[in-house]
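Field log, afternoon session.

UNIT: design team B
ACTIVITY: writing a sequence onto a fixed backbone
BACKBONE:
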């Protein structure tokens, strides 16, 4: 349900922002400021989840997320929209680290890939149906009612979390913040390389899927409903890939799987600007999304394996900080390049970024080669 709310909101933000008659750069800023608040709150969210328990932080996260949807509904200018988006980022940062840490708490080691694959499958199914619901609500009722739907969905998730999510951590409010654990995470080269890989993954999600694709479709005269269908089809394929491929990591190897993923995405992004029309955009968006579908499963499994249970939230928050940089930079860079050189340039630049990500993937392979069969 959380990802349904996110899927409803994210693709609408750049289109909603254009109604205020601002440049692509300011559109990118309204999308990317989501990453600024996440950058600030990721580490505290992970620490609070480890200290006070996952359940209470997840409940707080959904309360904040609901408030952000209401503010976005009330927005009458780009500044208010950006404020709502900033608060949404706070809620999402409070959700992501503790939720993944909770997953690590309950997943037996021998079934970890299955648990992670199932988690991401449901996650992506929620994200998948958000764009088409939001697209048609916006098309027939306007952008503001769509954000009331976001508030209702996140409010329902808040209610269910409070009633049904168990606590998986022994809560010790007298435990102080462990700077040693933070310093240890910054010296873990496997984690840092995974962080660089994650930064590109989040860059692509925020910059390409949530910004460039909707803007490209709009520039070709497609309706909001059409844009929603394009994203929904791609994300359903992503979800199915997680269900089918959750054991693929053990067979292919994590670093090899990520290498294939980034090479494939680089190729598809380089030809994406040639796509014209609804069907072509559905196919190309689905190919890009499918190519990246198993990367989150891989890095989640690796982080759970390398982090102690008492510091698991901190490790995920450390990882998410790098992802937040990608979330922040992606839409702003896409908007800036689009203003200067046209939308096509943003796809070419993103293709080059994917190719450079092969370097940390190769470094990760060298670190784990001969020690783990991943």
């Amino acid at each position: 349900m959380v990802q349904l709310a996110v899927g409803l909101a994210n693709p609408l933000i750049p289109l909603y922002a254009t109604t205020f008659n601002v440049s692509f750069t300011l559109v990118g800023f309204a999308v990317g400021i989501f990453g600024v608040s996440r950058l600030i709150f990721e580490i505290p969210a992970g620490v609070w989840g480890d200290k006070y328990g996952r359940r209470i932080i997840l409940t707080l996260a959904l309360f904040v997320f609901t408030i952000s949807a209401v503010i976005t509904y009330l927005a009458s200018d780009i500044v208010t929209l950006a404020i709502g988006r900033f608060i949404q980022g706070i809620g999402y940062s409070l959700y992501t680290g503790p939720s993944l840490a909770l997953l690590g708490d309950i997943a037996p080691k021998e079934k970890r890939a299955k648990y992670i694959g199932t988690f991401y499958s449901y996650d992506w199914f929620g994200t998948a149906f958000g764009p088409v619901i939001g697209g048609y609500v916006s098309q027939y009722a306007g952008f503001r009612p769509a954000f009331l739907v976001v508030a209702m969905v996140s409010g329902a998730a808040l209610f269910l979390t409070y009633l049904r999510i168990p606590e998986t951590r022994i809560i010790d409010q007298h435990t102080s913040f462990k700077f040693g654990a933070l310093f240890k995470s910054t010296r873990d080269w496997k984690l840092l390389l995974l962080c660089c890989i994650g930064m590109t993954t989040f860059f692509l999600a925020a910059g390409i899927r949530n910004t460039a694709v909707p803007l490209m479709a709009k520039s070709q005269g497609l309706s909001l409903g059409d844009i929603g269908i394009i994203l929904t089809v791609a994300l359903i394929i992503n979800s199915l890939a997680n269900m089918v491929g959750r054991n693929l990591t053990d067979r292919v190897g994590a670093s090899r799987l990520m290498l294939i993923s980034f090479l494939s995405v680089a190729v598809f992004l380089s030809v994406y600007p040639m796509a014209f029309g609804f069907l072509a955009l559905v196919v190309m968006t689905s190919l890009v999304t499918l190519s990246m579908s198993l990367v989150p499963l891989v890095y989640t499994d690796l982080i759970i394996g390398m982090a102690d249970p008492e510091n698991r939230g901190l490790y995920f928050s450390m990882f998410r900080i790098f992802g937040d940089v990608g979330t922040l930079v992606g839409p702003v860079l896409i908007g800036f390049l689009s203003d200067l050189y046209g939308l096509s340039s943003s796809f070419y630049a993103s293709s080059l970024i994917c190719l450079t990500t092969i370097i940390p993937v190769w470094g990760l392979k060298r670190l784990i080669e001969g020690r783990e069969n991943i």
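LOG NOTE: The mean pLDDT is 81.
NEXT ACTIVITY: expression trials, pending approval
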